[in-house]
Amino acid sequence: MRHAVGALLRKDLALELRTRESIPAMALFSLTTFVIFHFGLDRRSVEGDLASGVLWVTLLFAAILGVNRLFVAEAEQGGFDGFLLAPVDRTALFVAKALALLAFLLCVEVVAVPAFAVLLLGPAPGPALPGLVAVLLLADVGICVIGTLVAAIAIRTRARDLIVPLLALPLLVPVVLAAAQATAPLFAQGGAEALPLRWIATLALYDGIFGAIAFAVFDFLLED
Amino acid sequence: MAASAIELEGLGRRFGERHALRDVSLSLPPGATLVVLGSNGAGKSTLLRILAGLLRPHAGRVRVLGRELPDEGWAVRGRVGLLGHEPLLYRELSARENLRFHARLHGVGPARVEEVLEAVGLGRRAQDRVAELSRGMVQRVAVARSVLHDPAVLLLDEPLANLDPAAAALVDPLIGRASGRTRVLTSHDPAAGLAEADLALGLRAGRAALVAPAAEVAPERVGALYA
């Protein structure tokens, strides 16, 4: 399985490097959304709950763009058939796609989070950074697990672009809620406060439960 | 070794209410070639996809290399090569990158990739993106992909489509009778298909209108399949 995941992940990263279809679009969407919030909220800066909400809603919608494109090459260029003909565990495709989406999201966040700090965030971002990285990683894993599962369902439908947000957004409400709650103290006006462990645990639990569910059911999604 | 490489008993497959295949039965010994004849929509490609394990049969039994499909599909995967209408190649990757990707999935080393690239005459264009290759060249890469893992069974859907005579001769040792593999091939050129085959299956609206040794099939019986 490790070799298959490696081969699939390498192929996806090579395709993204070559086509630049997902990451630039996701990053540009994030930057544009921050600018819209900047003017839409009519505030020079945000902090606390509001800052946290703005960041996570933007990252979530940017992730949806990547989710929409996750299996397009497989569906349009015969990648599913090529994979299904190989003597490998089908779950390898799920793991590889989730890792690819995670890599895309991390690349986007490398651009989006500093942009958020410059364009919108009131408090200095430095002290919040270690906690923020931890929340980003935990939330990203949840988004990638659900995103990959939903993308695999949606790609076989005609209304892929509609199905992805309709299925993914409700399922990701707990992730956004927990991530926003966990991040809000980091953006407090008086400086970064301690991470609320309750919400960190919620994110970890969500990742574990939905990771196990996705791992169990993904095989069936590839069935004829 | 199983007595038959491929065994079908009352095979049926539907798409919604439409029967793509109905009650198809035959047996093909190892190393033999089956040609599947029939007009467009007769069920040829559906049969190949079922044999490849990509579609589930809705009725009857399918055994490939002694294994029941789809339940034992895991045991057959990797022992079957499919050359279908789609090349199953990523357009933005080079021919070599595509083959190396499939080689990793099949646990095949990079030396075999170079071997098949040379065999299909694309050693010099191997670094070109598939999107930049002509249709004939893409078909040659697809041929290379289909035999990369040295499959025991080859499923060939119009394998010579887009190939000029020189290219067809080039790929013949890989996918032709001389390859020694069990082959199932479809062809819109019945005479050429029958000349390649040991057994002929004629499909008409998904039903087996003809199952006979290829050498004994009279031209008028073939003509009736396309009427």
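Chain A has a mean pLDDT of 93.
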